[in-house]
Amino acid sequence: MRVLKNKNIIFPSEETSSLILKILQKYGLGETTDEVIKKIYSNQISSSAIIAFVVKKMAIGEINASEAIEKIKNDLTLPLKKAEEIVNELESQVVPLGKERGSVFEKKQNEEIEKAEVLKKPPPKKESLSNIYREPIE
């Protein structure tokens, strides 16, 4: 598994969330919007939030697969086999989508720096040419 060095990681929001939801539904852990809202109001954490947390920790290398399995097993009260299957799917499908924040915005940031440097440069000096259409001042 590839570990990202930068702790500022982003995941494509729609793609990542739909994959996580698909995996949760596959294992019977899918939640409706109403269920998620009820959990929020009762200070509980939704299954998708737990999975998203685990995915991020795996991507930055703070936890390995066995720790992720243990966390999912305990937090979602699942059998070990089911937790292992979920982590395997997360490792193969979701974690690779994570990108270091710097690499995503690096090109745009470099372009902005170049523009700023161009603006800082003084304009080129114009050579003073005598204007043949003007009368000399005496």
Overview of this protein structure:
The protein is mainly α. The chain has a domain at 9-100. Helix content is 59%, strand content 3%. The chain has 6 helices and 2 strands, in the order βαααααβα. The chain has helices at residues 13-26, 33-41, 47-59, 65-75, 80-94, 101-120; strands at 9-10, 99-100. It has a two-stranded antiparallel ribbon. Helix 1 (13-26) crosses helix 3 (47-59). It is rod-shaped and about 100 Å long. The N and C termini lie far apart (82 Å). The model has no long low-confidence stretch (mean pLDDT 77).
What are the salient characteristics of this protein?
138 residues, mainly alpha, two-stranded antiparallel ribbon, 59% helix, rod-shaped
Describe, in short, the structure shown.
This protein has 138 residues and is mainly α.
Topology:
Blueprint: E1 9-10, H1 13-26, H2 33-41, H3 47-59, H4 65-75, H5 80-94, E2 99-100, H6 101-120
Antiparallel strand pairs: 1-2
Helix pairs in contact: 1-3, 1-5, 3-4, 4-5
- Shape, per Cα inertia axes: rod-shaped
Number of strands: 2
> By helix and strand content, what is the structural category?
mainly alpha
Helix tally equals: 6
H/E element order:
EHHHHHEH
Give the helix proportion (percent range): 55-70%
Overall radius of gyration: 27 Å
DSSP strand content: under 5%
Strand order of the largest sheet: 1-2
Poorly predicted spans? none
